[in-house]
Write a structure and sequence with these properties.
mainly alpha, Serine Threonine Protein Phosphatase 5, Tetratricopeptide repeat, disordered C terminus
Length: 354
């Protein structure tokens, strides 16, 4: 382009940040700033998002100085981005400073701060922030309740979750699929499977997140039978599982000792080009094999996947060696399937669990 305007620069920074090219976004912003162009609030919001993604506090603080220099610190979109950036970088003190300096705090600003406290593991504080917000006559929106339900799930806090569900019903948000998913997840994390299942049954539509939430809820309680029944129903309805779905399946396989089913999961994941086992999946397999006494196989995955420094994987293996000091490699029929799963790209097997 012969002439690049502020709009063009801003669009490039936003595109890079949105697509995850955060370093490139910062590089483009630096060039824009050095050329003396008038950076607008949209560009500042985008570059602060890139800093948050990178958890780059030093760069974020420099951007904050630039914001103050041009007088944009009171713009809601910029203030929200500053709060989120400082929170992502672990600087709650700075996030709170920006928040308190604002004269007019919108619901978006409150959501940013509440989200920051959840991200940093201060879930209890989010509840008091919620009540402060309500006292200031700021009306919560759907995002507020999604964040609060996430906090309830992390603690977990069943009674707070029930209270916020009542608020959600009062505001008319219960029919929203994202809210339903968050409620299933919250109740599942609290161990309230009846409530989680009731919420799932009430929903008119289920996406992959809905199915994953209910499957993971039962998996976390070690209920293998219902977990696999739900998984088969999910497949029958044409919903494609994601990585988190399989993590729940592998978790229950590990606790119940279902090696064959776990290996079939790996095969299923490998037949999809867009989905490959991640570190967490391999750690589940190591735990599963170690619990079953297949220590050589577990050790092989540990070495092949360069997981020697992974604390949980190593501890699972060490516990197993103590439990099975005389163990020999077991000839499970499923272990060759696991080996094949590493290299298979197209498998026509009809998966059935049980």
């Amino acid at each position: 382009m012969k002439e690049r305007t502020v709009v063009t620069w801003t669009a490039m920074i936003a595109a890079y940040a949105h697509q995850g090219y955060n370093e490139k976004a910062i590089e483009t912003f630096d060039q824009m700033w050095s050329e003396g162009l008038n950076v607008d609030e949209e560009a500042f919001a985008s570059i602060l998002s890139a800093c948050a993604n990178l958890e780059c506090l030093q760069k974020g603080r420099w951007i904050h100085e630039c914001v103050v220099c041009v007088g944009y610190e009171a713009f809601p979109i910029v203030a929200n981005a500053l709060v989120t950036m400082y929170g992502a970088c672990g600087s709650l003190e700075d996030a709170l400073f920006v928040f308190k300096a604002l004269g007019d705090r919108t619901i978006e600003t409150w959501n940013s701060l509440i989200g920051v406290y959840v991200k940093q593991g201060h879930e209890e504080r989010t509840f008091s922030l919620y009540y402060e917000m309500v006292e200031e006559s700021v009306l919560p929106d759907m995002l507020t309740y999604l964040i609060l339900l996430g906090a309830c799930a992390c603690l977990p806090s069943f009674h707070n979750g029930q209270y916020f569900q009542a608020c959600i019903i009062e505001r008319g948000y219960e029919g929203e699929i994202m809210v339903g998913n968050a409620l299933i997840n919250m109740y599942g994390k609290c161990g309230e499977l009846d409530s989680a299942n009731s919420m799932f049954q009430k929903m008119l539509h289920h996406d992959v997140i809905s199915w994953t939430a209910i499957i993971t809820s039962y998996a976390q309680q070690g209920n293998g039978k219902i977990t696999f029944q739900l998984f088969e129903r999910m497949l029958d309805q044409g919903v494609t599982p994601n990585e988190v779905t399989f993590l729940g399946i592998l978790s229950v396989c590990s606790h119940v000792g279902l090696i064959d089913d776990a290996c079939f999961c790996f095969m299923f994941m490998n037949q999809r080009r867009t989905m490959k086992p991640m570190t967490e999946h391999f750690v589940c397999m190591i735990d599963l094999l170690a619990r079953a006494g297949c220590l050589d196989e577990a050790q092989k995955i540990l070495s092949d996947r360069s997981l020697d420094s992974h604390v949980y994987a190593n501890s699972a293996l060490h516990r197993a060696w103590k439990t099975h000091p005389e163990v020999e490699t077991r000839g499970f029929y499923s272990l060759p399937l696991l080996t094949n799963a590493y290299s298979s790209s197209s498998i026509d097997t009809q998966i059935k669990f049980g």
